[in-house]
Write a structure and sequence with these properties.
- It contains 13 helices and 19 strands.
- The chain is of the alpha/beta class.
- The chain has a domain of 227 residues: Rossmann fold, CATH 3.40.50.150.
- The radius of gyration is 21 Å and the shape is globular.
Length: 404
Amino acid sequence: MPQCRHCGTENDIFLSLGSLPPANTFLKEGETARTLPLNVFFCAKCTLMQLEDVEKPENIFNDDFKYFSSYSSSLIGHSREYCNMVIQRLSLKKSDAIVEIASNDGYLLDIFRKIGYNNLLGVEPSGSVAKEAISKGIPTEIRFFNDETAKELSARGKADLIIANNVMAHVPDINSFASGIATLLKKDGTATVEFQYVADLLAKNAFDMIYHEHFSYLSLHAMDSIMKSNGLFIYDVERLKTQGGSLRVYAAKIGSKRQKTGNIERMLDREKAIGIDKQSTYSKFARHANDKKQQGLDYLRGIKEAGKTIACYGAAAKGSTFLNYLGIDDGTVDYVVDRNTEKQGLYMAGCGLKVYPTGHLSVTRPDYVWILPWNIRDEIISEHGTVRGWGGKFLVMVPEIDVI
């Protein structure tokens, strides 16, 4: 029985998606990828939904990591709004120290830099994307963030603001990560942490958000327990639309002058009302994932039997899970397109779909463009209206099968 990475409690696996390749694995022609079990369990004690330990983070977040945040225009827009908001809310001075954990290619810190903030630091373990940030003039430590890293960095000075967006789910030692935030943060500083919200994942039956990069799937209940255990407290929380549904928590060190808002208790009560702390909620999610697999296969077979062609848009991690869980290959889908030049010309592991530039859609004019990163469907449809010009249709599978 796997042990909870936060509280150590032993729990049973409730969902197995099979043995799949790590989601952001891209191969040259003729190469093959190893596969790993993708098993999920729920901790009845602290409510943390999580993966069984099967992979080391350094085997995922390294020089071969090919996710560059700057390719998402919706993410850039979200980041600009965040910068404007947090500067005003925290009354940040231009000299204040701002640290971003998992800073990727510097997409967010570069926004601060361009409006006059210069006391910036990124911490990013993947050399491939960190080097891009450094080329933009963003000081970046190429290393994993944990309590040991935080102690070394805090010797140079503590942070007024720590930003950790879409990273906490990616760390196996979640306690060391949270403890590191407490170590690096000033007495009355703030850490903002954004993460995919497990309540939205469950409600939308978004099993495709489960992949080896995501060690944890977080609720406010689980996050509250993690923070309190590691010298922090959450003083505010808000819901976001990003990543198919996210939370942003505002955390400070225990003993800080920050005052808790009423949003926290209200959201904790809502989580209890939907059964975030009940095993039956997760068992139901597992049944729905199995149902969705069959529904998806039946729908795609219907398209192919009608003599229609399908191409995918977005060689995203969630797409890898969906394609490989359903067993889709190039016999059903012709290819996938992606804006990221680092992925183009390579093949998605498992399903074997070749990645082309987005312009390839206009060359082959598929009948259906299946949007794998469904959380940014509006952005993709807006940017590729020409698909409708040749009679093509857009397809999404999550949260429901929908043709646009």
